[in-house]
Amino acid sequence: MQSTVANPDKLLSAPRIHPAGEVSPSESPKTPGKMSEAQERVCSAWDAEGESAVFEKCDAMESEPQEGNVEYKLMLLSPSEERLEHLVTQMLWRLAEGQGEAIYEIGVEDDGSCTGLSQGDLEDSLATLRTMAGRVNAHVTPLRYIQGKKGNCAEVLVRKIPEEGCFRDLRVAVVGNVDSGKSTIIGVLTTGRLDNGRGLARSNVFRHRHELESGRTSSISQQIMGLDLDGKLVNDGSLRDYSWTEIVERSAKVITFIDLAGHEKYIKTTVTGMTGSLPGYAMVVVGANMGVLRMTREHLGVALALKLPLLFVVTKVDMCPPNILQQTIDDLSKILRSPGVRKMPLVVRSEGDVLSASRSLSNDHRVAPIFLTSSVTGADLNLVRMLLNLLPPRTDPEAPGSPGEFHVDDTFQVTGVGAVVAGTMLRGEITVRSNLVMGPDSLGKFVPVQIKSIMNKRLPVAKACAGQSATFAVKKFKRSQFRKGMIVADAALNPRACFRFTAEVVVLHHHTTISNNYQPVVHCLTVTQSCRVVGIKDGPMRTGDRSSVDFEFLYRPEYVVLGSRMIFREGRTKGIGRIVAITYIDGETVTLDEASTLPSKESKAEGTTLPIERAAPLRRTAPTKTERLEMSLHPVASECA
Fold it and tell me: pLDDT tens-digit profile of 88-115?
């Protein structure tokens, strides 16, 4: 079989990658195996047959990326101590790029040529790689072996061993049309037990009684899947169910699934979950027997507006006729290739396809992998787990001790504890001893607050870091004093509330025109409130138009972040945009260009106070000129509306 070629535009034409639109005869049902099965199969073949073992053939890959967590090495044979120190430093840099994870291609040249090595040289190179990993407290896991031009190559995952109580958290929003099987596939992935076809798996995911009775999700819920250093499933519930505490303590990486509603009447809940939960990836679930329906397009449009990397899971392939499955894949491929989406569909059928998809999702996000699965037979669910195991978190690391910012999306009153707020860390880190403020209240003020304890994944922790979901037990406050959309932040950030802000927006769909006094509902991070349009730079707007629009909150001031993405809707999603200017309640206006010239975080350590908030550290909210030009998604309006 042929591997990926250097030209990314030829990914779909490469023989080893099954292009969307070609559906091979269905294979025998697969049990949702563990990640190590492929490794054990390859290793046993290697031990039994040596160089005569038949591996997947690969002549060339894409050239080695200068940035990212992928490193090509032709050989690592008996390096000197000086050379070894250089290689260790290089590994540290690759691990930092991948948030503690890196992919090493052994036997591959920098231009992507798969030259290959003999059995002895390959084993010696892997031994050197393990020595390098040992010096940086990392673990080496072979992913697969491939046949090169002159020998064999190895693709290896290097994962840094987490400190006690720490783990990597990958957040995935699960969206799709109602009855497509979102909750069911989450239940199967997180428990390791197949569904019985009558709702057994989804019963572990639902939060309310009426959800169990109707079989439909109406709220936002989170479920976790733990993976150890080798990528094996930790919470394999074949014998018993594991608690969240047990899963987190035994895991090197935790996948957090954010289960969202698919019914049209819960669109507000779904949009709030996608904007406020800060997911790093979006998993779009499509029922094979249902096809790509309107709400699937709606959720896809929201994910594109938030610049989330996409992976698609086609479920119920065991009960779908081949011609209907073919039509579903054709429709999905047509949407992905449309001018407003510009993705390359890739039907994943092997471990090699998973590695190709993980490299793209970690860098340019051009490839959209499509998995053909069944929650009843377990077909290809092991490939879904393998991809999630390889994907890196999408939060940029910050200096230890940097000021933290926590956005509240839910509140509770716990007997014996008091008020508890739940939400997501947008940036920095917060500890129990941090000097914090909470707000804004109805007058736009921030008041000092103290935290008694912090929990992450139901486990007591000493601090909460950027990208993590957490709960805070707050001293001397009642639940009624908190609401969704508030923040708990370090006082050094000097947070301020606003009534007005300006955003560069694109109208995805509207049946008439949008002019002054138009009142949509605006979603920005955890903020959800009705706003009034008080000014449009280029006059009234129609479907597909782009302009700078001034919004004003109707009921109370809110805390918004410069550079963050926002969605405004009226029933269905109407438009998307990016906040470029904020007018605070004291009358001061700050623009995105002015914020980029403010003192850096290093200057804060010297005593300089940051005067305004900065954009989130998540890569999807980093303001760039290229992303501003790509905001014009009006070609998708006919697909997403």
Answer: 999 999 998 888 899 999 999 998 899 9
* Cα separation, 580 vs 627, whole angstroms: 13
Instruction: Find the mean pLDDT for residues 417-439.
Output: 90
- DSSP assignment, residue 619? G
Rounded-to-integer distance, Cα 418 and Cα 420, Å: 6
In 3D, which of 64, 134, 151, 67 has the Cα closest to residue 105?
Answer: 64
Sequence letter at residue 15: P
Instruction: Read off the pLDDT band of 400 (50, 70, 90).
Output: low
**pLDDT at 396 (0 to 100):** 67
d(CA 409, CA 271): 13
Question: With 90 as the cut, is the pLDDT of residue 312 above it?
Answer: yes
Q: Which DSSP letter does residue 379 get?
A: T
- Cβ atoms of residues 58 and 6 within 8 Å: no
- Between CA 198 and CA 195 the distance in angstroms is 7
CA distance linking residue 410 with residue 412, whole number of Å: 7
Contact 267, 298 (CB under 8 A): yes
Between CA 558 and CA 528 the distance in angstroms is 9
Q: Distance from CA of residue 235 to its chain's centroid?
A: 21
For residue 116, CA distances in Å to 109, 124, 126, 502 come to 9, 13, 13, 56
Q: How far apart are CA 474 and CA 432, in angstroms?
A: 10
What is the predicted pLDDT for the residue at 238?
Answer: 66
Look at phi and psi of residue 233 and say left if phi exceeds 0, alpha if psi is from -120 to 50, else beta.
beta
From CA 358, how far away is CA 370, in angstroms rounded?
12
Rounded to the nearest 10 degrees, what angle do helices 381-390 and 351-362 cross at? 40
pLDDT 10s digits, 256-265: 999 999 888 8
Alpha helices in 100-143 (DSSP H): 119-135
Q: Give the CA-trace dihedral at 425, 431, 433, 436, to 10 degrees.
A: -10
pLDDT exceeding 70 applies to what percent of the chain?
82
Taking each helix axis from N to C terminus, what angle separates 81-97 and 119-135, rounded to the nearest 10 degrees?
70
Residue 546's alpha-carbon distances to 316, 390, 541, 543, 564, in angstroms, are 40, 37, 8, 9, 17
Which residue, 449, 445, 404, 470, is CA-closest to 613? 404
- What length does the chain have? 641
Enclosing H/E stretch for 176: strand 168-176
How far is the C-alpha of 398 from the C-alpha of 429, rounded, in Å?
9
Identify the band that residue 333 occupies on the pLDDT scale cut at 50, 70 and 90.
very high
Whole-angstrom Cα distance, residue 124 to residue 81?
Answer: 16
DSSP state of 26: P
Question: Cα separation of 71 and 64, whole Å?
Answer: 7
53-57, 73-77, 113-117: which range is least confident on average? Answer: 53-57
Q: What is the pLDDT of residues 282-307, one digit of tens each?
A: 999 999 999 999 999 989 999 998 98
> Which pTM does this prediction carry?
0.81
